[in-house]
Amino acid sequence: MQSSLATINTPDTTRHFSKGAVALEPLTLAWASRRERELVIGLAIREGRQTMNLRTMPGAELFVLRRWDGRFAGWAGVDVRSDPEHPELFSQFVYPEFRGLGLGGLLEHVWWSFLDHAGCAKGFMRMELDSNDALCERRLASGYYRVVTAEELGSRFVGACRKCELFGNACGRQIFLEVDVRKALAASIRSRGPLDIAALPMRISAGDRQLTAALEEEAVQ
Ligand SMILES: CC(C)(COP(=O)(O)OP(=O)(O)OC[C@H]1O[C@@H](n2cnc3c(N)ncnc32)[C@H](O)[C@@H]1OP(=O)(O)O)[C@@H](O)C(=O)NCCC(=O)NCCS
Asked: Which of 69, 77, 96, 157 could make an SS bond with 90 (beta carbons 3.0 to 4.6 A apart)?
């Protein structure tokens, strides 16, 4: 677990990123540009994360938490077009120095808002159990996730895993989850208020643990 004050090294200075009341590094939540998408593929590979969706799925869309210097605090992907019956959520990632601040929850909030806006009642994700056991348990305990079988999902969704660099290798025990979008969105709104997906890009402040007042109304122009 991180200490209450994480230190982030930047090229020119050392900034302190507080978990207390004061936000010291503003972030921008935005849809990734084409260049950023390519960058994230490289960064994800470096982190040992899968890049199958971004590399091979035509409908895969990516949003990022952009830092002041153009680097990223994290990112996540969503795809409602490649397999419309199974809208997919993928590649949620927050860099370790930014974890525990509520940013992972914020990325999920974007997922639910986006899916709800697109008229999707369900979302689906692939998870690897050995490295994500605790997270998986937490998700299942939330009341809006359930385990879904490969048979229920069908070969189109499940077969895409074969294009993944982790398939049969780093991805040992695989699990598929289905999320009830309305319930998940309601939980996110209870945590930090509504998020207008049409307002991206937007500035966020990551000072408060739960990012309650984190979503500034004002969109970044
Ligand atoms: C998972 C991840 C995105 C969470 O990011 P984060 O910014 O730390 O998340 P948050 O601060 O919003 O945490 C939200 C809650 O989830 C919990 N949580 C976060 N990561 C967890 C994990 N791996 N296992 C169990 N619980 C976890 C936090 O403890 C927190 O709970 P609380 O609010 O009750 O204290 C981040 O740890 C990460 O990038 N991990 C590596 C990539 C990964 O595993 N992605 C998910 C693949 S499906």
From this structure: 77
